[in-house]
Amino acid sequence: MSPTPSPWTAVIPLRAGSKGLPGKNTRILAGQALYRHAVDVALAAGASRVILTTDIEEVLSATLSTGVQAIRRPAHLCGDTVPMAPVLAHALETGGCQGTVVLLQATSPLRQASDVGAALEVFGTGQFELVMSVTEADRGVLKWGMLVGDKFEPLSDPAYCFANRQSLPPVVRPNGAVYVMNAQWFLGNNSFVSERIGVVQMSAERSLDIDTLGDFERCEAALIARQQGKNP
User: Fold this and answer.
1) Rounded-to-integer distance, Cα 43 and Cα 86, Å
2) Is the pLDDT score of 211 beyond 50?
3) Does any domain span residue 127?
4) Among 91, 15, 20, 117, which residue's Cα sits nearest to residue 58?
């Protein structure tokens, strides 16, 4: 494979509002604020620059590590229904980002620097416009379909709807932990959508995402166990 692209910028989005777990991005997880775990992974993976895009005053006024910058996210990009694409575009434009960019969501604290490195390596081959992390999912979804009036429309090959689950091909889903792309490509595309998406696979254990207090507690237990050398 081609050498890992360098230098590169990590972008970490942090929003104050969270219905599932209020204040989760700054909540203390295994000894430090949740978002700091993402910052640590970015720096450990070799990011030359880390941008936090946020409306959280505590983060905007915090003393940050060298190379880490907090950008104020405007109010119109902080709502519950705002998609990630315009949030990332604002951060890239405001930060004057060029070249390779890695999007790291703070709510995936079990992601490791090696996962980021693996995604950068795949992106470095030049075969893909976007590389994202995935984890194995229930292959039974291949049996699913959509309702179009009274008609069943299969989501994939119609034959899968009537196949034994064990005979279906493996399925993966994006886990939201790592996305790698070129800044200029993303701004020109104005979307994550591409027909050239590469993947790196992460275990289900490292793919836990925090949305509720229960998720937070599971992630904290896993991180503490990792710190104690009880799991990878």
Assistant:
1) 24
2) yes
3) yes
4) 15
